[in-house]
Specification:
Blueprint: E1 2-7, E2 13-18, H1 25-35, E3 44-47, E4 72-77, E5 81-83, H2 84-104, H3 122-144, E6 152-154, H4 156-176, H5 187-217, H6 229-238
Parallel strand pairs: 1-4
Antiparallel strand pairs: 1-2, 3-4, 5-6
């Protein structure tokens, strides 16, 4: 049978493709790509109507009761796409270098004009290890643990997300490694902060492992409760604790 692929904004027919009931939406995309070579599957979105949800790649034509010979699928170009894992790695790699710039070059007068050449104190060294360690952990989780329900996202999100992560990491590092940085008044404060940080990081890791195991059991599972979720929140809330006291 034949179905029409129409522009989702104007309703104008773009092309007509031959399909069978055994074909999937992914098969329709591949036929579309033969006509429009700049497209690729993750960039294409089809809907039965402008108000309907996007059809997933694994949906069979024969399973869509309203889709008959001569029916219309509305097409939307999602724009250039980029892999989720690529975005995550870029997000988490940038903060490491952004933080280390101010840590390594803290004696440079062009960064800190009032610098007196004092070496890093123990808390600043510990803060660096904690901050860098956090993002190394996130990179490793992205590579070995995370599973993504969608393969890609709009490439514009890469610049937006990286600006946030890289910018705030630079801001944090600037003040933590500032020559006027004042260490906590007692070592007890440092140890408490470090303990909370480690607890949060381990809790965050356990949450990600729990999510991975749940997704292995139910691959298309999206949102679900998890009793370790509180630990994940603690991690994102508390990991800067050892580094937050400034003059």
């Amino acid at each position: 049978m034949k179905i029409e692929l129409a522009n989702g904004k104007t309703g104008k027919t773009l092309l007509t493709v031959d399909v069978t009931k055994a074909d999937s939406i992914l098969d329709v995309k591949k036929k579309h790509i033969k006509e429009k070579t700049y497209l690729y599957p993750s960039r294409i979105c089809y809907k039965l109507s402008l108000k309907d949800k996007a059809l997933t790649d694994d949906v069979k034509i024969g399973d869509i009761e309203t889709l008959t010979d001569g029916s219309v699928l509305y097409f939307k170009d999602l724009g250039p796409q980029i892999g989720w894992a690529t975005v995550f790695i870029a997000e988490y790699t940038g903060p490491i270098f952004a933080y280390l710039i101010f840590y390594v070059f803290n004696t440079c007068s062009w960064i800190y004009p009032d610098n007196e050449g004092a070496p890093h104190n123990t808390v600043q060294n510990l803060a660096c290890a904690c901050y860098v360690g956090h993002y190394v952990k996130r990179i490793l989780e992205t590579i070995f643990i995370h599973r993504f329900s969608k393969a890609t996202m709009p490439i514009g999100n890469l610049f937006k997300n990286c600006t946030y992560y890289w910018g705030f990491s630079s801001l944090i590092s600037y003040f933590i490694n500032h020559p006027l940085y004042t260490v906590p008044s007692t070592d007890t404060q440092v140890y408490i902060g470090l303990s909370i940080y480690l607890f949060g990081e381990l809790g965050n890791l356990s949450t990600h492992l729990a999510f991975k195991n749940m997704r292995l059991l139910v691959p298309r599972l999206g949102l679900y409760p998890c009793r370790t979720g509180t630990l994940s929140v603690l991690s994102s809330t508390w990991y800067p604790v050892p580094t937050t006291r400034t003059k």
